[in-house]
Amino acid sequence: xxxxxxxxxxxxxxxxxxxxxxxxxxxxxxxxxxxxxxxxxxxxxxxxxxxxxxxxxxxxxxxxxxxxxxxxxxxxxxxxxxxxxxxxxxxxxxxxxxxxxxxxxxxxxxxxxxxxxxxxxxxxxxxxxxxxxxxxxxxxxxxxxxxxxxxxxxxxxxxxxxxxxxxxxxxxxxxxxxxxxxxxxxxxxxxxxxxxxxxxxxxxxxxxxxxxxxxxxxxxxxxxxxxxxxxxxxxxxxxxxxxxxxxxxxxxxxxxxxxxxxxxxxxxxxxxxxxxxxxxxxxxxxxxxxxxxxxxxxxxxxxxxxxxxxxxxxxxxxxxxxxxxxxxxxxxxxxxxxxxxxxxxxxxxxxxxxxxxxxxxxxxxxxxxxxxxxxxxxxxxxxxxxxxxxxxxxxxxxxxxxxxxxxxxxxxxxxxxxxxxxxxxxxxxxxxxxxxxxxxxxxxxx
Length: 446
What we know:
2% of the residues lie in helices and 41% in strands. By secondary structure, it is an all-beta fold.
């Protein structure tokens, strides 16, 4: 059960093919996939009665994060009568081991909203049918976050293996089927796609498959496929990330037993680091350094900084010194459920109601503090300028001053269950709960 609870919070997408606007949030964890941006500040206080611009009821269920490009917000949903909604951590744990395959016809949809008003512009079906495998009570059948560029929105549904592309008017452009596979203990899927070099990158790490596929953005045709070794096949949930560094642009994939970096054009492996447990958290980047966090709900593995330009196997074997491309490695520093956030020289790691801060250059811990009124930080934190936002599954939120000193400078509260990670665009904060999508916006002064 341990790895699932982190997986539900991680889902993806990023465009270096058709650039999005500066204040867009085109993928899980923002423009760079790191969880950070330098946009306008969001409100430092909100509730159902304050600075809530709108809330919109979505069809069906899902845990995918909203993405924002231009004047539209995109999100996915699994729509069916009598389909159970994802549960919060406590009730969900009670259901562990009791997963049942629902006997329902699901319509897997991509939904577009007006980002300013919350009005539904269109909802289009990507695929329909009965699910092949059950999922955990805390997970959903639409957990993977879509990604978008200025021309298209791309959605991947791990429960069916369907990848679909739509234009911004809702017209289906192409569809590809990658296959659906069982996951460990029926926890379900959670890894989202990302974009780069005219390709859409999708990962599938299940009990029967372990591969990365690159699809042509215009046609959906397979450009290349990278497969993990047969003995490394097991479920993992980390989302891939396009890492543009000073040496090159590469695709970083955290899989069943470690990390591989792939060439975007060919899928050739550039470097690898093995000997790690299956990844649930997604990587982050700050400046020219990549940061990997490898842990689970009840255990915390290493957090590692990787320098650009590596090649071959950079695994640190027992008794050997680390590779020259390992900036530092900190045992026990990894996130437990969520993913780390790197921003302006510091790394923020959420825990069981706590937030830790590390120096990004050295890995030295700056603080470990309990965040007031929080117990389960499952959604990934985001940074916006000098704001670091953390969100509890109960809807309690806190804004922490960025930097090495812990200081809460803002709070918010909405009544819903929040496992999806926040999105920030143009000073607006978008939160996807089990019941609604919410837009937090500074109210005009009177």
